Amino acid sequence: MKSRYLFLSLLFSIGLFGQSETSNTYNEDAKAIRLVLKTQQDAWNKFDLEGFMQGYWKSDSLKFYGSNGITKGWQKTLDNYKKGYPSREHIGELQFTLKSISPIEDHSYYVMGQYHLKRSVGDAQGEFLIILKKINGEWKIIADMSS
């Protein structure tokens, strides 16, 4: 738990040195980041987990921190999603609520928000903090902490 708060404190302090949230670059980046998350939401709602994963960095260095601890790697993250959401009933309908998009440094941001799953097997919701980085001209999630 302490490490989670240290991580958040570090992000807040680093964000102070990033670009201004009123700059044109920020506005363009935030729009592109919202599109990544909208594309993920749409893929999820079509029961397309591979499409959902296109928003993540396809690398063994991807990190996902959730209720089962840290998962490393794109393929392992996809495998965990497939295991945890094996059917349309488990997938349900996803909606993201974005609370904050904040610059860390050039070409990287952290995003805080909430997810809401409306499902026949029981609704689920939680919070997330993701870090996106522009890699080869595309915004990709390089780290995800969801609860």
Structural class category: alpha+beta
- Average predicted confidence as pLDDT: 89
Describe the main β-sheet briefly. 6 strands, mixed
Which outline best applies? globular
Low-confidence stretches: 5-19
Rounded to an integer, what's the Rg over CA atoms?
Answer: 15 Å
- Based on DSSP secondary structure assignment, what is the total number of beta strands? 6
Task: Please give the alpha-carbon distance between the first and last residues.
Answer: 12 Å
Strand numbers in spatial order across the main sheet: 2-1-6-5-4-3
Number of helices: 5
The succession of helices and strands, N to C, reads HHHEEHHEEEE
Helix content: 25-40%
- The amount of beta strand, in percent, is 35-45%
Task: Please tag this protein with its features.
alpha+beta, 6-stranded mixed beta sheet, globular, 5 helices, 147 residues
